[in-house]
């Protein structure tokens, strides 16, 4: 079974595999008891968003993670993959800009390229 840090890195790898961009990892443990991390990523199209979310599910399942649920696959503007300890949001840029989850949930823990947690 993956520990939280391994799971977080596996999600980022799965996102990058399918060319998701603007990947932001937010540590929300102090803000909610629902989950530990929210990871937000952008995709160029609804088709890519679906493919990215699919890849996250597939790669994490291979590593033994429990996929709680997936939502938004039909439309593909915002696909959510709930891994319990981590919730992944894959969005097309217009949807991401509209909902602005990073601002909603406060300061982002880290950005792509600086995956280590900032304490």
From TrEMBL:
The lineage's top-level taxon is Bacteria
InterPro entries under this entry?
Answer: Iojap/RsfS/C7orf30, NT_sf
Q: Which Pfam families match?
A: RsfS
Description of how the protein assembles with itself and partners = Interacts with ribosomal protein uL14 (rplN).
What is this protein called in UniProt?
Answer: Ribosomal silencing factor RsfS
Q: Which keywords does this chain's UniProt record carry?
A: Cytoplasm, Repressor, Translation regulation
- Taxonomic source organism: Methylobacillus methanolivorans
The gene for this chain is: rsfS
Described purpose of this protein according to its UniProt entry:
Functions as a ribosomal silencing factor. Interacts with ribosomal protein uL14 (rplN), blocking formation of intersubunit bridge B8. Prevents association of the 30S and 50S ribosomal subunits and the formation of functional ribosomes, thus repressing translation.
What SUPFAM superfamilies does the entry give?
Answer: Nucleotidyltransferase
Coiled-coil regions, chain positions:
none
Which cellular compartments is it found in?
Cytoplasm
Its family remark reads: Belongs to the Iojap/RsfS family.
> Which coarse location class applies to the principal site listed for this UniProt protein?
cytoplasm
């Amino acid at each position: 079974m993956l520990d939280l840090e391994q799971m977080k890195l596996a999600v980022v790898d799965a996102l990058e595999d399918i060319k998701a961009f603007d990947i932001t990892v937010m540590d929300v443990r102090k803000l909610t008891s629902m989950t530990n991390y929210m990871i937000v990523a952008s995709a160029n199209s609804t088709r890519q968003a679906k493919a990215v979310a699919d890849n996250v599910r597939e790669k994490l399942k291979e590593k033994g993670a429990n996929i709680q649920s997936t939502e938004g696959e039909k439309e593909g503007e915002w696909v959510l993959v709930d891994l319990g300890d981590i919730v992944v949001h894959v969005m097309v840029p217009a949807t991401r800009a509209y909902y602005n989850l990073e601002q909603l949930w406060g300061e982002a823990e880290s950005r792509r390229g600086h995956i280590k947690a900032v304490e």
